[in-house]
Each structure stands twice: as C-alpha cells, then as structure tokens.
Amino acid sequence: MRIGIPTWAVVAIGLVLNIVAALMTNFVIDGLGEQSASVIETQTNNNQLIQLSWQQLDALERRRETILVILAVKPDMGSLPLPFSRRLLQSFNDMSETAVTQHNMPLIMDAIDQQQDLLRNKIDTLYLDNLQLADSQRDLGSKISAYRNLALFLQVLGLALIMARDLSRKPS
Description:
This protein has helices at about 5-75, 80-90, 105-170. The chain contains 3 helices and no strands. The chain starts with 6 loop residues before the first helix and ends with a helix. It has one domain. By secondary structure, the chain is mostly helical. This is DNA mismatch repair protein. Keywords: Membrane, Transmembrane, Transmembrane helix. It comes from Enterovibrio norvegicus FF-454.
C-alpha cells in the first residue's frame, strides 16, 4: 500500500525549510556574528590598554633610574632644582612639590612602587578579561558553526523536497 502525499505538500515543506534556513542565516547567525565582532573589539581594546600600561610601567622605571643616576652623580647636592623635581614627579599628584633629595628617596621610591603595582594589577585584570573573552569567542564560534551547518542541512533538504516534484511526475 502506497501512502500518497500530494506533490504540492512536499514542495511546500521544501520551501518552508528553505525559508527557515534563510531566516536562520539572516537573524541568528548574523546576530551571533555581531556578538563575536564585539568580543573581538573588546579584546583588541584590552590589548591596547595592556600595551599602554606596560609603556607607563616602563616609563616609571626609567624615571626611577633617572632619579637614582642624578643623585648618584651628585651625592653632595642638597636637592634637585624645583622645576626638575616637579618634572620628574609630575605623574604623582601628591608629590609634585616634593624635592628630590636623598632624604626623600624612600618616599619617592614607595610612590613609584605603588604606581607600578597599580599598573601591574590593571594589566593582570585586562589579561584575565581577555582570557574569558577568548573562551566566549570560542563558544560563539562553535554556535555560529552549528547554526550554519543546520541552515545548510535545512536548505539542502528543502531543495531535495522541491526537486521531488520533478521526480514524482509520471512519464506519459
């Protein structure tokens, strides 16, 4: 006994499957692609901030070395002239009026260490954020791949059902 499904019903199901595949591609996959692009942009911004923080950390270390060299070259000098002290300590708001002297060196070195610790913590936080974003990017990539495969399967199945119309014609 043969079950007779009307040809138009098979074709209609094929068309519906193709429409579902197109809608899935247009809305779901494109939406996930936008999320993925946003994650990549955030990672890029974090990498730039990490680079900037490393440069600031390096600049602080060079500033420390400059102060130590100046005081080592002129150990008998009482203090650096105030304009030079201000320039060397300008990144420390509370120390801009502090004189660079042997007496103030522990205070200055502690301020540099604290600033460097803050920058290192910022770098660590941004790096850990990037690791989490990389995991999220991998998850989005696998979702996009799964949806693409599903959409392709639905499209091929729909086309096969549409082609069934031609196969169901009886030769006269």
